[in-house]
Amino acid sequence: MSTLPKIAWIGLGIMGAPMAENLIKAGYPVTGHTLEQDKLDRLAAAGGTPAASIAEAVREADVVVTMVPASPQVEAIAYGPDGILENARRGALLIDMSSITPQTSVDLAAAAAGKGIRVLDAPVSGGEAGAVEAVLSIMVGGAQEDFDAAYPLFEALGKTIVRCGPHGSGQTVKAANQLIVAVNIQACAEAVVFLEKSGVDLSAALDVLNGGLAGSTVLTRKKDNFLNRDFAPGFRIDLHHKDMGIVTDAARAVGAALPTGTLVASLVAALRAQGDGGLDHSALLRGVERLSGHTTG
């Protein structure tokens, strides 16, 4: 029997499934719940234990980890008679790794405290590849002692693990992350169209650009997407649209101007309105191509 904490994992999507599997590989006993049977089957094949409900998953857990798309989903699984707060044991640690509004995280922590449940907000960056390879960047908000207790678990999921401050701080840093990523992808997409229309060898150009000051993790991760026009979702436009709404609203609340971010948020929204919301965020290239007179398939 494992002496490691018992984990309940809620949400087994593109990010959640490989993350839960990495905990299983690290020796953690993982019980998981999600709405899709095929994802529960995948968890079982990896050595985890499927649960038919949230209540069943969390009842005996030392740590509950959630990874769902947005604030409404976090609230849906956390609150109510069938939710986490009513069914997890007192003293459990709830780690929400979703990307949601900072205020949702603050409110969740306050509600959980009344049930004797500790909370960390711990959103991640690195996309599907980072989740699979366990090299995510994890930005955490919450009490230092809870962060310290969770650190070994985080080490099984990522490489850069930083407590950023009190509850909600992780989500604030994640919002800034998504701002930088979106602007970076947009700049890369514009460069790709410019280079191609100029008749330059695109692969060679991206290689040399990525070796200099223009280089970035975004360009490294998304180069093949651009070259092959492969927009299978690692992180969907729909989700980045949600995140750009979070960062623009949060910036307005604190009085921070986001002139470039606001423009890119509009371009992400336009791409979504054109039916590309289910594609990877590297599909911002399609928006630049349309603006440049190129008809995308």
TrEMBL record:
InterPro entries listed in its UniProt record: 6-PGluconate_DH-like_C_sf, 6PGD_dom2, 6PGDH_NADP-bd, HIBADH-like_NADP-bd, HIBADH-related, NAD(P)-bd_dom_sf, Tartro_sem_red
Superkingdom: Bacteria
An annotated Gene Ontology molecular function: 2-hydroxy-3-oxopropionate reductase activity
3-hydroxyisobutyrate dehydrogenase-like NAD-binding domain mapped to chain residues: 168-286
Domain called 6-phosphogluconate dehydrogenase NADP-binding: residue spans: 6-164
Pfam family, one: NAD_binding_2
EC number: 1.1.1.60
Keyword terms of this UniProt record: NAD, Oxidoreductase
Chain segments annotated as coiled-coil in the UniProt record: none
PANTHER family: 3-HYDROXYISOBUTYRATE DEHYDROGENASE-LIKE 1, MITOCHONDRIAL-RELATED
Family: Belongs to the HIBADH-related family.
Protein name: 2-hydroxy-3-oxopropionate reductase
Species of origin: Streptomyces chrestomyceticus
